[in-house]
TrEMBL record:
Protein's cellular compartments: Cell membrane
Family annotation (CDD domains): TM_ABC_iron-siderophores_like
Family, similarity comment: Belongs to the binding-protein-dependent transport system permease family. FecCD subfamily.
Keyword vocabulary terms for this entry: Cell membrane, Membrane, Transmembrane, Transmembrane helix, Transport
Residues passing through the membrane, by range: 7-28, 63-80, 92-114, 120-141, 150-174, 197-220, 241-259, 309-326
Membrane topology: Multi-pass membrane protein
Primary site of residence: membrane
GO MF term (any one): transmembrane transporter activity
GO cellular component assignments: plasma membrane
A Pfam family it matches: FecCD
Superkingdom of source: Bacteria
The protein, known as: Ferrichrome ABC transporter permease
GO biological process, one term: siderophore-iron import into cell
Length: 336
């Protein structure tokens, strides 16, 4: 009974936390608002009201986009860790973020008058190309693709693309144009950005939920999944496509928001076990909570200034990895 009710209890608790954080996010800004203003902005919108306009057109799309980005990155991280059986797998080390930024840079160099929506799709295409490049490098090496080999290939390709991006940025003096995508952020968010992100994220999320039973079997072992009648190659191809949709959509509108896809699956597995039918929904919710909380912190940490969202999540991620490494080292020491 406890195993049946616990995931639902956790879901309700974390959903309440997410709604609370989004309510706090709607209150942040130079224009003061009340609870009545927030309610009217959602139910009975009056464009003549400054407070309702600030909520409806500026703060609400930013809060929603933060939640969408966190949920998509967290879900893609959970898929990658389950399929590759690598606890360190995540969008930031698989060439997605660096590929999107590099492709955006090439677009700015070749088409200086490129618009925002074209830049978003260029970044999305680059994320997909970066991910495919990592898999190609790992596939061309001798032997089968292993989690360690995939992680090493992803790290090398990410570093290489980042080096090219930084070198070309310095040479052509494109610091201001690339700053937004380099550090990751959601400042000046509008509804078109939210819609652009949802186009790939929604089908990616639905696909992840449908594939969650097969991901559970793959996380146990490819031999086990094949012995139970799973078409492992087809499943890997479908999960790869879902990862591209989820991460590409997030990176395209917000840039490289690091470590969200690596941290949250660990927490979800600790809370609900190793069944990805439970891990994926909970991970998506935890990712949304993390990015909305990080966005709130980025706007309130320094008075009068805003810390980029990607920089703040990287700081939290570094702390998480230190704690994880210490926990593993102490666990191994205890076994000895």
């Amino acid at each position: 009974m406890m195993r049946t009710t616990t995931p639902w209890i956790l879901w309700c608790v974390f959903e309440a936390i997410l709604l609370l954080l989004m309510g706090i996010s709607l209150q942040l800004g130079p224009t003061s608002v009340t609870g009545t203003d927030m309610w009217n902005a959602c139910i009975a919108y009056d464009s003549a009201s400054d407070s309702q306009f600030a909520i409806r057109q500026i703060r609400l799309p930013r809060a929603i986009l933060a939640a969408v980005i966190g949920a998509s990155l967290a879900t893609s991280g959970a898929i990658m860790q389950g399929v590759t059986r690598n606890d360190l797998a995540g969008p930031t080390i698989m060439g997605l973020s660096s590929g999107g930024t590099f492709c955006l840079l090439m677009g700015l160099l070749l088409l200086p008058t490129i618009g925002f929506h074209e830049a978003i799709w260029l970044s999305f295409i680059g994320a997909g190309l970066g991910y495919l490049t990592v898999y190609s490098v790992a596939f061309l090496a001798r032997g089968r693709i292993t989690p360690v080999r995939l992680a090493l290939a992803g790290t090398v390709i990410s570093i290489l693309l980042s080096a090219f991006t930084q070198g070309l940025t310095i040479y052509f003096s494109l610091h201001d144009e690339l700053l937004y995508w380099t550090v990751g952020g959601i400042a000046n968010t509008s509804w078109p950005q939210v819609r652009t992100a949802l186009i790939p994220v929604l089908p990616g999320m639905i696909g992840a939920l449908l594939l969650s039973p097969s991901i559970t079997l793959l996380s146990i072992g490819e031999e086990v999944a094949g012995g139970l009648g799973q078409r492992t190659r087809l499943i890997r191809a479908c999960t790869t496509f879902c990862v591209l949709l989820l991460t590409g959509g997030a990176v395209a509108v917000a840039g490289p928001v690091g470590f969200v896809g690596v941290m949250t699956p660990h927490v979800a597995r600790y809370l609900v076990g190793y069944d990805y039918r439970k891990i994926i929904p909970l991970t998506a919710l935890l990712g949304a909570i993390l990015t909305v909380a990080a966005d709130i912190a980025s706007r309130t940490m320094i008075d009068g200034q805003e810390v980029p969202l990607g920089l703040f999540t990287s700081m939290v991620g570094a702390t998480f990895f230190i704690a994880l490494a210490r926990r593993r080292s102490s666990h191994r020491g205890g076994k000895r």
